Amino acid sequence: MDRILIQGGTPLSGSIDISGAKNAALPLMAACLLTEETLRLRNVPSLVDISSMARLLRQLGVAVEGMEEDTDAGGVGGAISLDAAGVGDTFAPYDLVRRMRASILVLGPLVARFGEARVSLPGGCAIGTRPVDLHLAGLAALGAEIAVENGYVRARAAQGLRGGAISLPFASVGATENLMMAASLARGETVLANAAREPEIVDLADCLVAMGAAIEGAGTERMMIQGTDRLGGADHAVIADRIEAGTWAMAAAITGGCVELKGGGPAILQAALGKLADAGLKMEPGDGRIRVGLASGRVRASDVVTEPYPGFPTDLQAQMMALMTLAEGCSTITETIFENRFMHVPELCRMGADIRIDRGSAVVSGVSHLTGAPVMATDLRASVSLILAGLAARGETEVNRVYHLDRGYERIEDKLAACGAVIERVGG
Length: 428
Ligand code: UD1
Fold this sequence. Notes:
Bound molecules: uridine-diphosphate-N-acetylglucosamine
Low-confidence stretches: 68-76
Shape: elongated
Structural class: alpha/beta
Number of helices: 14
Distance between the termini: 5 Å
Largest sheet: 4 strands, mixed
Strand order of the largest sheet: 22-23-1-24
C-alpha cells in the first residue's frame, strides 16, 4: 500500500491549480441517468471516487468515455461523456456501491426514468452512521414505494413519480441532490423546503436546467422544480473544488508560506473566509485566482463550528484543526454535521499536538511545534489534515493508507512538491 513521506519545515511558495470539485462531479455524473442523450462534463477531477462512480454507471449500462485532456475549460481535469441511452439495468450491487456513499445518488434518477431501482445501501468514509433516510422519505413523498431489504433499497414507481411538497428535517446535501434529480422527471411541481444551499447544489441545478429541467431557487432554502417527461443532453464544466482550495490555503498558512490558488476567485473560499482571516491569513484576490498566506508571525486561535453552507464546512474541519495545533492560544472546534469526525485527533496528538475532546468539541491548545511521526487516518479529510501537520512538523512524517487521499485530492504530492514541499509517494 502506498505511503507519503514528508520532510517538514519548508514554507510553501508557488501556485496550485484547483481541480474540479469532486462533490459537484459525482452528482453531475449520476444526472446522466436522467436522459438518453449524451451528457458531457468538463473539468472532472481524476480521482478514485470519480472512477468508482464511472464503474457503477458502466455496470448500469452507461457508455462512459473520456478523461482526455481538457483544454477549453481552462481547468486541469478531464472531459467525460456519459451516454445512458443503453441502460438496461437498474440494479446497483453492494460491491460497487459500498466504496462510496455518493453511489446512492443513482437511486433518484433511476427510479424517475425507469420506474424502478434496486440500490445497495452505501458505505463511504468511516465518519459516522450516515443513514439515507432523508433520501428515501423524499422519494416516497414523490410517490415511490420504498422497501429496504437485505441491505438494498428497492424503489418502485410504476406510473412514474409525481411532484410533491418535501420539507427536509435537515439540509442534507445528498438528499437535496437526489430529490432535485428525481423531481426533474416527475409529473407536476415539487417544492423542496430546507434544501441544502451548497455551491455544488447550484452547479447541479445549472446542469439540470441546461438539460431542460425547470428549477428555481437553487442555492436558497426553498427550491421549486417543475417536472418534465423528458430531459436532454448538455455540456457542462464542473465548478472548482472549494474544499481543495481551503485545504491549500491552510497548508500555506501552517508552513508560514504563501501560495497562489488558480481556478477560482475569492468566492471559492467564501464559507471559510471569515475563520481564515480570524486565524491571521491574508488573502489577495485576483482574476480567477487568489493569493493566500500567513499575514505575519504565528497563526491565531480561532473557534470554529461546522454547519451546512454557508457555515464553516465540515470537510475543512480536520485541516482547520491541524492549523490550530500551532496557533497562538486555545481554540474550540465543534463538529455538528458528523458524529464521528475527530479521528485525526489521536494522530495529531502523536505528532505533539495538545487536543482534548469534550463531547462534540475539540479543545486545541496551540503548541510551539509538531514533530514528524508515522500516522494514518481512516477518512479523506482526516488524512489530509495529517499531510498539513507533516508539512509543518520537524522531521519526517509518514502518512499511511494513502488511498483515502486519492479519493479526493488529485496529484496531491505533485501539487505540494511544486510549491517546495519535500514530499514523495512510496509504493509497497
Ligand atoms: C456531502 C459531501 C461530504 C460532506 C457532506 C456535508 C458529497 C459527495 N459529499 O455528503 O463531503 O461532508 O455533504 O457537507 O457531496 N443524514 C441523515 N440522513 C440522510 C442524509 C444525511 O441522517 O438521509 C445525516 C448524515 O448522517 C450526516 C448529515 O446528515 O450526519 C450530513 O449529511 P449530508 O449533508 O447528506 O452529506 P452527504 O451528502 O453524505
